[in-house]
Amino acid sequence: MSAATDSELSIAGRIGAHASWANTKDRSARTAPARRALEQKFLDLADGDPVRAEHLRKAHFQRLALRSAQARRKAARPASEVGGDRIDA
Fold first, then answer.
1. Which of 40, 46, 51, 81 is deepest in the core (most CB within 10 A)?
2. pTM
3. What gap in Å lies between CA 52 and CA 18, rounded to an integer?
């Protein structure tokens, strides 16, 4: 029997994730602990100040949006441009 390739392992993982979510009756309850932990992380970073924590949370998600936009832009470039990023001085 041969070892599974990375691609096969990835597909198997996605199948498992879809099956798991298909068997989850209350998706919100399943993810609640993670949401609480993330909010607590921002509160801890803000030394308990909920206003600062909200700004930290918004900054975090804005950073994610920026990185996403950059990745989409890079993926949309033709292959001939991807290899040679120019830096103009």
1. 46
2. 0.66
3. 36
